[in-house]
Write a structure and sequence with these properties.
The complex is a heterodimer of chains A (227) and B (813). Chain A has 227 residues and is α/β, with parallel strands linked by helices. Chain A is built from 5 helices and 16 strands. In chain A, a hairpin with a 5-residue loop joins β15 and β16. The termini of chain A are far apart. The relative contact order of chain A is 0.18. Chain B is built from 31 helices and 26 strands. In chain B, a hairpin with a 2-residue loop joins β21 and β22. The chains are: A alpha/beta (227), B alpha/beta (813). Chains A and B meet through β1, α1, α2, β14 and β16 of A and α26, α30 and α31 of B.
């Protein structure tokens, strides 16, 4: 599980193969688009009953990344919950439930780090979270927000994907003005990096694909040798 | 025609008998037998035997009495949409001639929404449809009214539906019809099959009516000027010979096994078409418009030949076809005979067919297939398996859309079908539980169940979900397809290609579609945009098509042919010499033994295994054997699987094949290791889609490029981690073991051919030589795709002139 170090706007970052971002200078771990409670929300709407384990899976991964980074601050860049109701039901169900449940894992997360919940379009007003809830945070001249705005900023929202070697993988996109995180949630689809508006937000720069290892790949249009 | 013609014609209503006479026809015996049948019946008749008319005769006879009544009387179900159009046209004639008061309509995915809505309120007397459309109709709350008056169900080409998920779905639908319209008669129409009784059991029991099989077909190998090549599947070497045969026929059908081969052969034919004869191309990757055009041109007699794949395979009305050419070995004998049935669609003249083997192994296969046809032996079929459980899940969900369900009554209804007759109640409960609650062991959706139990009956918690459920009806899970269009924005549609194939293309790559070479320009809004480029050779010729394995019986015949020198008389000279040489240098594979060879070539150790187990089983065997070789330190680098053999290459020689072929070890490998394999994930995707866990991509969703759905692989991994005994994983394991992975055939082979004969050959052997040239090599990624990805990433960084530091500097600017 090797990570990938890079520099953006004069700051040093480490991209984790899981899709989390470590910012050592700020003692911070960042992740976007957890979409906790997604399977529950789909079920609530009468849709398919997906395996209801993704919330635990996502939180367990995040806890492991937090331990690995040793960071004491956790910034979640919006769409942490699949909708506001999910933040309520997550709290309500399994009240007092034991180890390994979503409620328990969430509690641990908030006790092991200071949590900053940035709101997203799915969770404009999450309920009853410990930590701070806000629409935007500024750190060292960089705006941390859900949807990329006026740069330089760090954001999520688009679930960027990058195609390489016949595979489509979640990826960080790093341009001059925008650093866009992949979706961290277990059940999340994605948008290819060359589709609008990603192709205008980050027209050039690099992608870091996630998977078993984080690997950097240039974003520039692939040169083709002509004969 | 023999004894049947004594059957009293007087049972036909006078009007209908008169109509027959006016056409100059005498009703066939089997047609009259079908008229007399009161219970469920199964008609086995060769093509051209008036099968479909036999199916409708009782309905027409009824209409002649003027006592049709109101509402839907006869439901006709066919596996092909195209057939429903044909049948509607064919029935229209007697109905018009006889002035019958009979409304006939078809209903498929192509039927206009307004007509479909009207059919739900005011159904015609005869409705022509497909299994999927029937399932959809049964999901409407109006289903009891639509089918209340139903008297007859006619299932055409039922042999093509048996042993498939579509067949299971149809039988479940028919069981429901039995409940909605007690006493309904079900009639199956089938082409020649080896075991009619089995097909009758599939229907849940039926009286069998056998038609006179007609004269024996005239079938032989097409003599060619050049001998076939060592390997390859295209048959291009015989293009001139095929062209000559076409010139000598009125209308020829040229069948070839895959779409890519059809494209290539079509090109090869045009290159030698000096007289410029009109020749068409027909395969499933072409756009519907393109296919319709060819079908229409054929019907109007404008074509001299059509190059086609299985897309043209089922009972379409062939009119003037007088010659069938089969390029490449027909993968099973039954298919060959059914295809020949297309030729000369007249009952009393023999059909003419010529086979063109594409390589030397196929010469053996062709000779074996011809011997099988001459001996009247069709392929046996596997034992009747229970109906698929994912289909049952979909059926339950579908019926719940129509109204509340009583579990006991539903179970009783389901177990009246052939495929589900032996379904244990516990399995039914597991399916119901999956549909209602998701069926998860560790956690439940207490508040958000999909079905809830109210007053003892199961119903949708949220009735609005019915719309989504209906959109996901069907059991055919095709690979994701992308449309191909000429030029930017709204150019002419040329056909579809698989998404995985599209992903492998780069701008400038050229490939064949619709008989022309095109250049890939870009992918926009999920449409592949291309520019025709007639002058260039296609760079990439293969897109994934159906990979059919040879049948067990045919493989056994080929093996017997190789092992028996006395039988070689039937072979062309060059093939005899080839086998002779194999016997001198190495060993000839025999019945009862497993022949394998090791030899060195160009610094690599090769291991050839003549398993004769079919391509799918050999592919699985390749994955398992190389896995064991890896464990034994033999450093395998790759393998290739054909229908007959497996060839593995690596760094160390195989000196003792025994440990590689130990059944216990292979089985264990299948359990542990194949679970991680792409084969399983592909299988899971299909199961999860049919069972309703994954929604199909709907037209609107794809446009945005942002996929609302996520990869089914993630669901598979999550389930395996948190709930390994979940129903869908159980179904997937079962399917992968006998379906895709064909492990049953591996076990059977190991049992039947226990004695291993291993030869350390001095060099490449004659039987192994064609394998070396075989396409479709599979590399062994012992350290996985990650390593390849790392190399690719490094290469791309280097190509872009970037190092890691440079990239940092750039993005940090």
């Amino acid at each position: 599980m090797s990570s990938c170090a890079f520099r953006y706007c004069g700051e040093d970052f480490i991209a984790y193969p899981s899709g989390a971002l470590h910012w050592p200078a700020q003692d911070a771990l960042l992740a976007a688009d957890l979409h906790l409670g997604k399977s529950e929300r789909m079920a609530r709407r009468g849709g398919p009953l997906l395996p209801p384990f993704e919330t635990e899976a996502t939180l367990a991964r995040l806890l492991a990344d937090l331990a690995k980074s040793g960071a004491r601050r956790l910034f979640l860049l919006g769409d942490s919950f699949d909708d506001d109701l999910a933040s309520v039901t997550l709290r309500e169900q399994e009240r007092g439930a034991g180890k390994g449940t979503a409620q328990h894992l969430l509690g641990r997360l908030c006790s092991e780090a200071e949590a900053f919940w940035i709101t997203g379009n799915h969770d404009p007003a999450p309920v009853g979270l410990s930590g701070q809830v806000s629409g935007e945070v500024a750190l060292s001249g960089l705006a941390l927000r859900h949807i990329a705005g006026e740069g330089p900023d760090i954001s999520g929202h688009y679930h960027p994907k990058f195609r390489v070697f016949g595979q489509r993988r979640a990826a960080f996109l790093i341009g001059a003005q925008h650093l866009i995180l992949p979706a961290y949630g277990t059940y999340t689809g994605g948008l290819d990096h060359d589709q609008p508006p990603l192709n205008t937000l980050v027209p050039s720069g690099v992608a870091i694909v996630t998977g078993q290892a984080a690997r950097m790949i240039p974003l520039a249009a692939r040169p083709r040798r002509r004969r | 025609m023999p004894e049947f013609d004594d059957f009293p014609v007087s049972e036909l209503p006078a009007q209908l008998a008169g109509w027959f006479a006016a056409q100059g026809w005498v009703p066939h015996g089997h047609q009259l037998q079908m008229l007399a049948a009161r219970e469920n019946a199964l008609l086995i008749a060769p093509t051209g035997g008036g099968k479909t008319l036999a199916g409708f005769l009782p309905t027409l006879a009824r209409a002649c009495t003027g006592a049709m009544g109101q509402g839907l009387h006869t439901l006709y179900v066919s596996p092909l949409k195209a057939l429903t159009h044909d049948i509607a046209r064919n029935l229209a004639r007697p109905v018009a001639d006889l002035g019958l008061n009979l409304r006939i309509e078809d209903r498929t995915g192509d039927t206009a929404a307004s007509l479909r809505a009207r059919q739900r309120i005011d159904p015609p007397h005869i409705l022509l449809t497909t299994p999927e459309s029937l399932a959809l109709m049964l999901s409407y709350p109006e289903a009891p009214q639509i089918f209340a008056a139903l008297r007859r169900v006619v299932v055409d080409e039922i042999h093509a539906l048996a042993d498939s998920k579509r067949g299971d779905q149809l039988m479940l639908g028919i069981a429901r019809l039995h409940s909605l319209a007690p006493g309904v008669q079900v009639v199956g129409l089938s082409a020649t099959v080896e075991n009619p009784q089995r097909l009758a059991s599939f229907m849940g029991g039926a009286e069998i009516v056998l038609a006179d099989p007609g004269p024996a077909p005239d079938i032989a190998m097409l003599p060619t000027r050049q001998p076939p090549p060592w390997s390859g599947a295209g048959g291009a070497y015989a293009a001139r010979d095929v062209m000559a045969a076409i010139e000598g026929a009125r209308l020829a059908l040229v069948f070839i096994n895959t779409r890519a081969q059809a494209e290539l052969f079509f090109q090869a034919l045009w290159a030698v078409n000096e007289r410029n004869l009109p020749i068409g191309l027909h395969h499933g990757s072409l756009s519907r418009e393109a296919r319709r055009k060819v079908e229409a041109a054929m019907a109007q007699g404008q074509l001299r030949a059509v190059v086609a794949t299985g897309s043209l395979d089922l009972g379409l009305d062939w009119g003037d076809v007088d010659l069938v050419l089969q390029i490449g070995a027909p993968k099973n004998i039954k298919r060959l005979v059914q295809r020949i049935g297309r030729a000369n669609h007249r009952y009393d003249t023999p059909s003419r067919a010529r086979i063109v083997p594409a390589n030397r192994f196929e010469v053996l296969e062709c000779v074996a297939a011809l011997q099988a046809v001459a001996a009247g032996e069709l392929d046996g079929t596997v034992d009747m398996e229970g109906g698929a459980l994912d289909v049952l899940c979909q059926h339950i969900l579908c019926l719940a859309c129509a109204g509340p369900l009583d579990a006991d009554a539903l179970f009783a209804e389901i177990t009246r079908t052939g495929p589900y007759a032996a379904l244990p109640r516990a399995e039914f409960e597991a399916c119901l539980d999956f549909v209602a609650t998701g069926g998860y062991a560790l956690r439940a959706y207490d508040r958000w169940q999909r079905l809830v139990l109210r007053d003892g009956r199961w119903q949708l918690r949220d009735p609005r979900a019915a719309r989504d459920i209906r959109m996901n009806i069907g059991t055919i899970v095709a690979p994701e397809l992308l449309g191909v269009r000429r030029g930017p924005r709204g150019g002419a549609p040329l056909g579809d290609i698989e998404e995985s194939f599209a992903a492998s293309l780069r701008p400038g790559d050229t490939f064949l579609i619709g008989g022309q070479t095109v250049r890939y320009d870009r992918l926009r809004d999920m449409i592949v945009e291309v520019t025709p480029q007639p002058a260039r050779d296609p760079k990439i010729a293969v897109f994934n098509g159906l990979k059919m394995a040879t049948s067990t019986e045919l493989s056994a015949r080929v093996l017997a042919l190789i092992g028996d020198r006395a039988a070689w008389a039937a072979l062309p000279d060059q093939c005899r010499d080839w086998l002779e040489l194999q016997g001198r240098i190495s060993h000839l594979p025999q019945m009862g033994t497993m022949t394998c060879e090791s030899f060195e070539r160009a610094g690599r150790s090769y291991f050839a295994l003549y398993s004769f187990a079919g391509r799918n089983a050999n592919q699985t065997l390749g994955l398992l054997v190389t896995h064991r070789m890896e464990a034994l330190g033999l450093a395998p680098l790759g393998f290739v699987a054909t229908d007959y053999a497996l060839l593995v290459w690596g760094l160390e020689p195989v000196n003792d094949p025994g440990p590689l072929l130990d059944a216990q070890g292979l089985r264990a490998g299948l359990q542990d290791w194949l679970a991680e394999n792409a084969v399983m994930k592909r299988s899971f995707r299909a199961v999860a889609t049919v069972a309703g866990l994954i929604q199909r991509n709907l037209p609107g969703q794809r446009k945005s490029g942002k996929q609302a759905t996520f990869s089914s692989d993630i669901l598979y991994d999550t389930l395996r981690k948190y709930d390994p005994d979940h129903l869908l994983l159980r179904i997937t394991r079962n399917e992968a073991q006998r379906g895709l992975a064909d492990f049953g055939r591996i076990e059977e082979m190991l049992r039947a051919r226990g004695k291993i004969v291993h030869v350390m050959a001095p060099h490449v052997t004659p039987l192994a030589a064609p394998l070396l040239l075989e396409a479709g090599r599979i590399p062994i990624r012992a350290s996985g795709t990650e390593r390849l990805l790392e190399q690719e990433a490094a290469r791309m960084m280097a190509e872009a002139g970037l190092t890691l530091e440079a990239a940092e500097a750039k993005s940090g600017a």
